[in-house]
Amino acid sequence: MIFNDKIKFIPQLRELLSSANNICIVTHANPDGDALGSSLGLYHLLKEHQKSIKVVIPDRVPDFLKWLPGSNEVIVAYDNKELMEMAMAEADLVFCLDFNQLNRVNGVTEALTKTPGKRILIDHHPEPDNDFFLGLSMTSSSSTAELIFEVCEELGLTKNLGKDAASCIYTGIMTDTGSFSYAIGRGRTFEVLAHLIDAGIEKDKIHSLVFDSFSEQRMRLMGYCLKDKMVVISQLRTAYISLSAAEIKLFNHKVGDTEGFVNLPLSISGIVFSVFFSERDGVIKMSLRSRGNFAVNDFAKKYYGGGGHRNAAGGKSLLPLQETIAQFEQYLKEYEAELTNA
Ligand code: 5GP
Ligand code: MN
């Protein structure tokens, strides 16, 4: 059963936790700050109380998040499939954080489908699937990390909140809100942040570790994207950037290097819709962002088998890059009225 508030969720979770011996925490592919921040935050908070707790992620930790306390203890399915499968096979409970469809965990999907463990969803994306034993799905929360704090607070796990847990949770909220500039729809977010700051986190340092730790290659790739690759369609208040597999290789791209690029065109006055296309293993991964009312999750769901939030979503295209872009430009024309009024 999936709940959209904590009242019924917490007692059921408490009971499940009291009899669980082996717990796994899983998060989505290409993990971002909220995926890892919420997973490691929960890991630190539960570690003191549970016998065995493991964090499983589909892909490697991107460089800008490697400093997160506990990140070197996670099981990366891409590097260690056997260990991942063992962890999933032994689990009584599997926390599924920051995603709500089993196919969002790429290489872990099969093991997550087969696990004897009960799948517990904690997430802030709309429209969760029905593949969870118990869930808390709250779109009013800025981030999954914020929800992890609230859930753990109800469970009495945050009384002596440690710096490691607080730093991870802070990172999740900070990254999912663009450093507190969007996705905050309730004052509660700032109450949670107050607890984290009182736990002694070094908030300026965290900001710097996440946002000022990029490689020279990444900056040059960003420059190339802005100078040569950004297409602005002013009339439709849209801009997009695309990178082919060859371009990505040329700049010696590493996982996480293009994180945030999709937001760049939104700094242009009047632009309300931005898309970033990147070709990886023959698939075009798309990141979509908007300002205001234009719902990019609906757009991603309708055309690209994806989803996400109203202002931040993702999807995929199996067509070649140039065809994907041409098709996108066609789709876009149907939204002229919506984009003009967004
Ligand atoms: P990003 O562009 O950073 O990869 O993702 C933006 C948001 O959309 C995140 O909240 C992410 O979880 C969600 N998202 C990204 N790709 C997909 C996808 O293929 N399917 C769904 N349902 N959500 C996605
Ligand atoms: Mn999130």
From TrEMBL:
Residues 256-333 form the DHHA1 domain. GO terms for molecular function: nucleic acid binding. InterPro entries: DDH_dom, DHH_sf, DHHA1_dom, Oligoribo/pAp-PDE_c-di-AMP_PDE. Residues 22-173 form the DDH domain. It holds the Pfam family DHH. This is Phosphoesterase RecJ domain-containing protein.
